[in-house]
Design goal:
It comes from Henosepilachna vigintioctopunctata. This protein is an alpha/beta fold. Helices cover 35% and strands 23% of the residues. The structure holds 5-O-phosphono-beta-D-ribofuranosylamine. 5-O-phosphono-beta-D-ribofuranosylamine binds next to helix 1, strand 5 and helix 6.
């Protein structure tokens, strides 16, 4: 399957996806053919360039609406014949039109155990709630933010003295494991989304 990855920043999850898809022994069933960032000069773009993956920067500045921006995204993904889109730290909400069109082909990684701590600063939310376990979630994306069907999760303990920074780093280690795994499940069609927004497994 041909994969497009959308990023906004450091791209450590993108790196995990690159490493996994380049590792022939893992049979991820996917090849990253395009990386799009909404921010220029970010580290994630350099990671893609180092791996010889085509990159593109689409800044939101020149677009009148979210829908207009997303139509451009969609057009670029189509022109690279992308089958699956991975959101790897893409810090923009996608329009209902886009998420509907890519339903079942659009996956995101979120730094909490959904449905807890949706939205931004999930690690800070976990610390403020005082939970002793948090983690990360790979899920299909639906129009509602962080609300799609869950594909994979991994837990991470919240230790005494944990800070937002230390927790973020620990969660990233777990993200780098489950995001490539979730991509593999989708790319090899071991998991699909049903009409009721529930998963259909064929393991
Ligand atoms: C990750 O923590 C991910 O869960 C969130 O954004 C962060 C992206 O980090 N959606 P990176 O750019 O992959 O390093």
């Amino acid at each position: 399957k041909r994969v497009g990855v959308l990023i906004s920043g450091s791209g450590t999850n993108l790196q995990a996806l690159i490493d996994a898809t380049f590792d022939t022994s893992r049979n991820i069933g996917a090849e990253i053919v395009l990386v799009i960032s909404n921010k220029k000069n970010v580290e994630g773009l350099k990671r893609a360039e180092r791996a010889n993956i085509p990159t593109m920067v689409i800044s939101h500045g020149s677009y009148g609406s979210r829908e207009e921006y997303d139509r451009r995204l969609d057009a670029e993904l189509q022109s690279f014949q992308v089958d699956i889109v991975c959101l790897a730290g893409f810090m923009r909400i996608l329009s209902a039109e886009f998420t509907k069109k890519w339903s079942g082909k659009l996956i995101n990684i979120h730094p909490a155990l959904l449905p807890s701590f949706k939205g931004t600063h999930a690690q800070r939310q976990a610390l403020e709630a005082g939970v002793k376990v948090t983690g990360c979630t790979a899920h299909f994306v639906e129009a509602d933010v962080d609300a799609g069907a869950i594909i994979a999760q991994e837990s991470v303990p919240v230790d005494v003295g944990e800070t937002e920074e230390t927790l973020t780093e620990k969660i990233k280690v777990a993200e780098h494991k489950i995001f490539p795994y979730a991509l593999q499940l989708v790319a090899t069609e071991k998991v699909k989304i049903g009409t009721d927004n529930k998963l259909i497994w064929s393991l």
